[in-house]
Amino acid sequence: MAVCIAVIAKENYPLYIRSTPTENELKFHYMVHTSLDVVDEKISAMGKALVDQRELYLGLLYPTEDYKVYGYVTNSKVKFVMVVDSSNTALRDNEIRSMFRKLHNSYTDVMCNPFYNPGDRIQSRWKMNYEKSQKV
């Protein structure tokens, strides 16, 4: 199961970061931002091959003691980063790919929304409803 998911714009600013509510939420944000260097390295190393093969999944970016960080990049250079608990050995590469495909489809749905301004932060319905309930 993913403990943190991030959507990063082409210019490397976060559009959406969501992590499980823990005491180390800042740690996940740090992991996401440090993984952007690895994403850039992989994209530049693949270069033309990435465009030719249409391979959007970057695979494992780097493992840590407790987590594994995976990456995915769209044709428009928007990056998706997923942090997974490394104790979950049942997750296979194909399952990670399918989670990224679902995330990419959801991102495409947001971009197709005529009321969304490209470049704005993406907010989930759950978070908006939660914030409204806290104000009452």
Could you characterize what this model shows?
- Belongs to the TRAPP small subunits family. Sedlin subfamily.
- Keywords: Cytoplasm, Endoplasmic reticulum, ER-Golgi transport, Golgi apparatus, Transport.
- InterPro entries: Longin-like_dom_sf, Sedlin, TRAPPC2L.
- This is Trafficking protein particle complex subunit 2-like protein.
- Component of the multisubunit TRAPP (transport protein particle) complex, which includes at least TRAPPC2, TRAPPC2L, TRAPPC3, TRAPPC3L, TRAPPC4, TRAPPC5, TRAPPC8, TRAPPC9, TRAPPC10, TRAPPC11 and TRAPPC12. Interacts with the heterodimer TRAPPC3-TRAPPC6A.
- This protein is α+β, with helices and mostly antiparallel strands.
- The chain has a single domain, classed as Beta-Lactamase, CATH 3.30.450.
- The protein has four helices and five strands, in the order ββααβββαα.
- The protein has helices at 25-46, 48-53, 93-112, 125-135; strands at residues 2-8, 14-19, 57-63, 67-73, 79-85.
- Strands 2-1-5-4-3 form a five-stranded antiparallel beta sheet.
- It is globular and about 40 Å long.
- The N and C termini lie far apart (32 Å).
